[in-house]
Each structure stands twice: as C-alpha cells, then as structure tokens.
Amino acid sequence: MKTKKRYLFPADYMADPSVHVFNGRIYIYPSHDWECENVENDNGDQYVMKDMHVLSIDGDPMTGTVTDHGKALDIADIPWAGRQLWDCDCAEKDGKYYLYFPLKDRTDIFRIGVAVADRPEGPFIAEPAPMLGSYSMDICVLKDDDGEYYLYFGGLWGGQLQRYRDNKALESACLPEGAEPSLPSRCARLSKDMLQFAEDPRPIQVIDEEGNPLRADDPHRFFEASWVHKHNGKYYFSYSTGDSHLLCYAVGDNPYGPFVYKGVILTPVVGWTTHHSIIEWKGKWYLFHHDSVPSGGKSWLRSLKVCELTHDADGNIITIEGTDE
Ligand code: FUB
C-alpha cells in the first residue's frame, strides 16, 4: 500500500528535520539549504547552510498550517564560526530551549555548539565556544523519562567521524573496510546546565542478532543522522546509511545500546542524502524526512516531508517507500 506524504514547506529548501512537541505544538528544527556553486563532492562542500529557521505546525502534521518563525540562528552571530551549519536539534529544560548545532570552526573542523532561547522558536543566543570535547555532526537529543538528556552525534565522510577513535583525533582519517566493524555513532549524557557533555561520548553499537557489530561493507550500517525515539519502553535508534541511501533502525533497552538491527524504515528517496526524525502526535507516529524532488534532484536543495509511520504489534516498523508521494 502506498504511503501518503506531505511536503511541509514548499516556499524554501530545508532538510534534516529534527522535530519535537513543545507546549502541545510541533516544532521543526531543519537545516536551511542554499543554492551553491561548489562542485558536489564526498566532503559535502555543496551543503553551505548559513542560518536556520524554526518552523511549527498548527495541529495535525499531515494537514496543519505550517508557520515559519523566521531566522533563529545565524552563522554571523556565532563567535567561533567557520562554515556549514548542518543538522541541529533542540531540547527543553525548565522553560529554556537549547539548540545544539554542528558547525565547522575556522580550521574547518566540525564542533558542536549550543545556543539558548526562552522560546522554542528562538531567537537562540550562541555560547561563546563549542562544547568541550565535541566533534563531528548530525545531532539528536533524547530527553529520557528519568529527566536525563542524551546527545547523539556523528557522521562519516564530510561528517569527519573517521578522523576520531576513542574521542581523540587521529593523525590521519581511517575508514574501516570490508568485514571490519563499522564506525559507530556516539552518545553522551548532558550536564545539568545542558551546556556540556557530562561524560566522555560512548560508541553506539548496532549489532546483528548474534551480537556482532554490523560490518563496514554492510549496506545497513550506520553512516549519519542519528535519531532516538522510545516506543513501549524500548529505545529505537534510527539512522541514515549514507551511500546506500536507506533509513534503518535498531532496538535496545537503554540510551547507550547496544541496539539490535531490525530493518529499513525508508527506502531511497530522490537525492543523495536521507535524514529524518520520528515523533508521536496524538497516538499516531510520524516520519519527518526530506527529498530532492522539487529541486529536480539537486542533492543540496532539499524539501521537507512528513508521512505516518507504523509500529506493528511486535514493535517492528513497517518499511515506507521513499518514492511514494
Ligand atoms: O545537511 C547536511 C548533511 O546532509 C547532514 O548533516 C546529513 O545528515 C545530510 O542530510
């Protein structure tokens, strides 16, 4: 059966939607795509985002009016900024909103910054320096039921994760190959003030049913775009597989995993990247994602989409076709 999808914001190119319900309203924290003259390459030089807007939806994701709250953060206002403001996420604690953003510093190294606001739509004021010990990109924040917050991050190739092992920079980048274990995403609990890691980031292992980490040459291995949602007490870690263009998921019993690989959420969309978030709204589940159909397939000009997502009676996610409209 075809899955009905909705383009959320045809007025502009936006991507990488991180979505949360704050104060009974759906807020979207997307990347803001720009036309660019850079040649498309594996380093992601074509993704030249300079600012980000916050969107919100008045009611149902499939039909509610979408509001653009305008520019919420601008590279020009971030003291340590180099270039490329990629996928952000936002968390609320005690009435304050914390926006976590990956950005290259002036030496072209991705760091993670925090910006704070009094309202979910911003404007967000950036802290003067990146989070200590942060690296790579593609942020997701989980607020767990016990009140702890966990920040997930990491991405291969242009996301620079292959430049690190055990949270230390390598002399030269090293991507595992073939039967070697694939590189994992990372997770760190956040400090009480939400501004730093409370611990060293830990690797997030995706394992098969026998307990082995997925291999580097497995088309279902982690590449980027971590997201975590909870369903029936289980932790669902979902992610993009990058060069095999899938959204996949794995299930675990705690925020750090390990997560047992379960299957494909979304088959390839039009455009190189695929990236998403999953939320529950009034008893139904929704997959927010993007594709490049409206730009005629330009990978760096993406458009936000949403569709319903279903967990079956055993908790498995039913696969959605990326090209369904
Ligand atoms: O938007 C830039 C990058 O493209 C993101 O960080 C990746 O997840 C991919 O969507």
Unreliable residue runs: none
Bound molecules: beta-L-arabinofuranose
Helix and strand content put the structural class at mainly beta
Helical content class:
under 10%
Work out the radius of gyration: 18 Å
How much strand content do the residues show? Answer: 35-45%
The number of distinct helices, counting runs of at least 4 residues, comes to 0
Label the overall shape.
globular
Termini Cα gap? 12 Å
Helix and strand string, N-terminal first?
EEEEEEEEEEEEEEEEEEEEEEEE
Give the biggest sheet.
5 strands, antiparallel
Total DSSP E strands = 24
Average of per-residue pLDDT values: 97
Write up what this structure looks like.
- With 325 residues, the chain is mainly β.
- It is 0% helix and 42% strand.
- The chain contains no helices and 24 strands.
- Strands 6, 7, 8, 9 and 10 form a five-stranded antiparallel sheet that branches. Strands 17-21-20-19-18 form a five-stranded mixed sheet, with no helix packed on it.
- Strand 8 (96-104) and strand 9 (110-117) form a beta hairpin.
- The structure holds beta-L-arabinofuranose.
- The site of beta-L-arabinofuranose has 14 residues, from strand 2 and strand 18.
- Beta-L-arabinofuranose binds next to strand 2 and strand 18.
Properties at a glance:
globular, 325 residues, mainly beta, five-stranded antiparallel sheet, five-stranded mixed sheet, binds beta-L-arabinofuranose, single chain, 42% strand
Quick synopsis:
The chain is an all-beta fold and 325 residues long. The chain has no helices and 24 strands.
